[in-house]
Amino acid sequence: MKTHTTDDFTYSVTEIKPCLADEKRIRVIASFEADLTPILEILFLHLRNANYSRSLACVTSKRAGCSTTVFGSGKIAMTFLKDEQEALDQLSALARTFTKAFDYLEANGSPDPNVVHAKENINALEIHKLLPRTDCGDCGESGCFAFAIVLMNGDRDIANCEPLERIEYSDKRNALVRVIQPIDLDATKDGCSDLAEFLGLKI
To answer: Is residue 40 part of a domain?
Structure first.
């Protein structure tokens, strides 16, 4: 077990095994020496394709077949990784995200429960309402509802919908971003700390 240290965190890889879905890939268990519970909701709102479990105190995100679960205890579980180097790269990226999340928490406090609740209840039907609904197929899916499903599951990104890049659909694109990623830790702007007001959840 090798320990790794960043500017703010120390973590170690505790287990590497073949992935159950594909033995050519690996699954990894790692552990951060930190209590991540205070930033779980912030991570949930930042990660575009994530699920939040209060009972298990964890956030799971999926992208391109890979699944990453962050537990409040500091435990990290990752699946469908190419090799150990990819795992280390992902863990380094997570460490940077954790730092940004703690900075956000210090500057803005915990997220408004209404915002967390809104993202918890988002589904493919709600996402579909915010798409152009042209059913053009340019995204590679059979139609906009199919795209809404893969977008929600993390297999596609907003950028894969070409019509959303048009000026006439800018309002829909902005609304979709606010639903899928209420907090962007990579581009947090001053004056947007009150997310409930920003998302129109307050009168």
So the answer is: yes
